[in-house]
Amino acid sequence: MKKNRGRTGRKRRRKHSQSFVDGVNCSHKLEYIKLKKWLKGRGFEDSTLRPAEFRETGRGLMATKALQVRDLIISLPEKCLLTTSTVLRSCLGGYIKNWKPPVSPLMALCTFLIAERHAGQKSPWKPYLDVLPKTYTCPGCWEHDVVTLLPEPLRKKAQEQRTTIHELYLSSKAFFSSLQPLFAEDTGTIFTYSALEWAWCTINTRTIYMKHPQREWFSLEPDVYALAPYLDLLNHSPNVQVKAAFNEQTRSYEIWANSQCKKYGEVFICYGPHDNQRLLLEYGFVAMDNPHSSVYVSSDTLLKYLPPLDKQRKAKLSILKDHDFLENLTFGWDGPSWRLLTALKLLSLGADELACWRRTLLGDVISARNQEQSWKITTQICHLLIEETQQVLLQISQLRRSKETPNPQLALVEMLHLEGLKILQKSAEVLCHSNLAT
């Protein structure tokens, strides 16, 4: 649920508090006035939150009063939510019910968003569509030369994301064509690849989780999406906790505070304990000083430090693969992860120690030599990654200077690597102190 960015200025009431040093109230803007009026017509009342622009996060929601633990932040009535039920009630409903094989809930929502955006003034959802981002910064939409600057495994996942959208587009062409009776224009000019990419990103970055019953008109993929106008202006912070769920009694989606927020401060929610690679992939942004962030070590990097003449090389790799120790090997703010150290301890077992591999995976110390060797390799890998990251940052810096206009994609990949560099430098300190202690 990340938002587009911009700047606006408003000096009113600034003299009354420090509040607007960080956030500038935007509720006077026409698009927000229209959105609030539209929401009010659907039963939404709110006096706690105001749209605002923040220096660090861009567009978000500001508290008009101090929020305490267990305060209700927002309650959005069911009538305001955009779900597959909304789609079935629309003119698309009959076409979806008659189409075989059934479309997925995701595809139904994408189709609805594209059709409503095309309808313009005639769309009952126009006030919401007008505040949605025009473009997104998910890596699946990036230029190829910027994707290549991403660290592994994010680079691979970005390519998979692009493939997912492309395959969805190709597999939906016939369904889009079946909607021709609804449009004066050729459906090929409405349901374009860029239109689907925009709709897919809207759903991927902005929906809240809301389970719906399985319906015969949709494929068996989970129907768990709901777009929540206004609520989706709330930005993510890894340092807050909230309670969020659909309330069956009030028939509203509610968010309750589990932490305090000062008056005129930005109100945050937490999308989950995600690292920055996941946040960038799924939502198109990076959170600086994210406590959940880590730097991944690929299996290829591990193999660079495994002696090529080690006769037990194949057996060791087989053990690691069978016990899922070749994935999610990381450096974090507190140093190398237990999984990374365990994988390297197993790879460092001597010929006479391999029989102890089960004990290694359980965390037992096999020998002083094994401990020393695995720490040495961990330190070498850490320094290698620091060097590689610095080289990529230099490359990004040169690319940014060569561009005539600022490139938000390059800025994001730079932020990701800068955060990664800080983590690796912290890990190098941890490893150095551990070696000295040993």
UniProtKB/TrEMBL annotation:
A matching Pfam family: Rubis-subs-bind
Subcellular location, record wording: Cytoplasm, Cytosol; Nucleus
InterPro entries: Rubisco_LSMT_subst-bd, Rubisco_LSMT_subst-bd_sf, SET_dom, SET_dom_sf, SET_MeTrfase, SETD3_SETD6_MTase, SETD4_SET
GO biological process, one term: inflammatory response
Keywords, comma-separated and alphabetical: Cytoplasm, Inflammatory response, Methyltransferase, Nucleus, S-adenosyl-L-methionine, Transferase
Positions of region (Disordered): 1-20
Any GO CC annotation of this UniProt entry: cytosol
Comp. bias regions, Basic residues: 1-17
Keyword Repeat included in the entry's annotation: no
Top EC class for this record: transferase
Enzyme Commission number, as recorded: 2.1.1.364
Location of the SET domain: 47-272
GO molecular function: histone H3K4 monomethyltransferase activity
Residue ranges of coiled coil: none
Reactions catalysed: N(6)-methyl-L-lysyl(20)-[histone H4] + S-adenosyl-L-methionine = N(6),N(6)-dimethyl-L-lysyl(20)-[histone H4] + S-adenosyl-L-homocysteine + H(+); N(6),N(6)-dimethyl-L-lysyl(20)-[histone H4] + S-adenosyl-L-methionine = N(6),N(6),N(6)-trimethyl-L-lysyl(20)-[histone H4] + S-adenosyl-L-homocysteine + H(+); L-lysyl(20)-[histone H4] + S-adenosyl-L-methionine = N(6)-methyl-L-lysyl(20)-[histone H4] + S-adenosyl-L-homocysteine + H(+); N(6)-methyl-L-lysyl(4)-[histone H3] + S-adenosyl-L-methionine = N(6),N(6)-dimethyl-L-lysyl(4)-[histone H3] + S-adenosyl-L-homocysteine + H(+)
Subunit description: Forms a ternary complex with TBK1 and ZNF268; the interaction with TBK1 is ZNF268-dependent and leads to TBK1 monomethylation.
Family, per entry: Belongs to the class V-like SAM-binding methyltransferase superfamily. SETD4 family.
The protein, known as: SET domain-containing protein 4
Organism the protein comes from: Manacus vitellinus
The organism's taxonomic lineage, starting at the top: Eukaryota, Metazoa, Chordata, Craniata, Vertebrata
